[in-house]
Write a structure and sequence with these properties.
Its main location: cytoplasm. Its EC number is 2.4.2.8. It catalyses: GMP + diphosphate = guanine + 5-phospho-alpha-D-ribose 1-diphosphate; IMP + diphosphate = hypoxanthine + 5-phospho-alpha-D-ribose 1-diphosphate. By secondary structure, this protein is an alpha/beta fold. The chain is 25% helix and 31% strand. It has one domain (12-150): Rossmann fold. It has four helices and nine strands. Strand 5, helix 3 (105-116) and strand 6 (121-129) form a beta-alpha-beta unit. Helix 1 (12-29) crosses helix 2. The model has no long low-confidence stretch (mean pLDDT 95). It binds xanthosine-5'-monophosphate (XMP) and magnesium ion. Xanthosine-5'-monophosphate (XMP) binds at residues 43, 75, 98-107, 151-153, 157-158.
């Protein structure tokens, strides 16, 4: 375990088993449909890569990069699009892949945006959820794990762009982000 990590919440094996489960569920639900999977960079990159390999049919993949205005650790609800989708999503079945839902503001904004672009359906799969912190009522259609209100890193999640490549999901020591 990295010295800045206080506790491992989910090991690489636990994450992998959960991703497999989510992939199977998504495969069943989208049977016979043409699915467009949209990963939200950069946090969801690893989850996206592993998840699509567990979906038992061909899907299309695209990515968006967004950032919320204001402090990096606190979502403001105003979302800036840094990279938009490559193609129109009109009449497409869309699945948004997120790393973590915190206040819910980012996802609320994104879901509305994609619905306004006349997608046939917009669903969300999130690896993690911090339900205690919610400011808008929104929940993922598919969820990996609920986590307590701590700063989470690893498996794509960062603090100041670090820790993304840890293979497990853990809690960052408070002294690391408080200093
Ligand atoms: P909201 O509040 O809009 O925020 O739901 C979602 C985005 O905030 C980031 N976030 C985190 N990133 N560890 C992280 O590495 C965390 O504990 C954490 N909590 C929120 C993340 O980018 C997410 O997409
Ligand atoms: Mg981040």
């Amino acid at each position: 375990m990295h010295t800045d990590v206080q506790e491992i919440l989910f090991t690489e094996e636990e994450v992998s088993a959960k991703v497999r489960e989510l992939g199977e569920q998504i495969t069943r639900d989208y049977q016979g449909q043409n699915l467009l999977v949209i990963g939200i960079l950069k946090g969801a990159a690893m989850f996206m890569g592993d998840l699509v390999k567990r979906i038992g049919m061909l899907v299309e993949m695209d990515f968006m990069a967004v950032s919320s205005y204001g402090k990096s650790s606190e979502s403001s609800g105003v979302v800036r699009i840094i990279k938009d989708l490559d193609k129109s999503i009109e009449d497409r079945h869309v699945l948004i892949v997120e790393d973590i839902i915190d206040t819910g503001l980012t996802l609320h904004y994104l879901k509305n945006l994609l619905q306004q672009r006349n997608a046939a359906s917009v669903k969300v799969v999130s690896l993690l959820d911090k339900p205690e912190r919610r400011k808008v009522e929104i929940s993922p259609d598919y969820l990996g794990f609920s986590v307590p209100d701590h700063f989470i890193v690893g498996y794509g999640l960062d603090f100041a762009e670090r820790y993304r490549n840890l293979p497990y999901i853990g809690v960052l020591k408070p002294e690391v982000y408080q200093s």
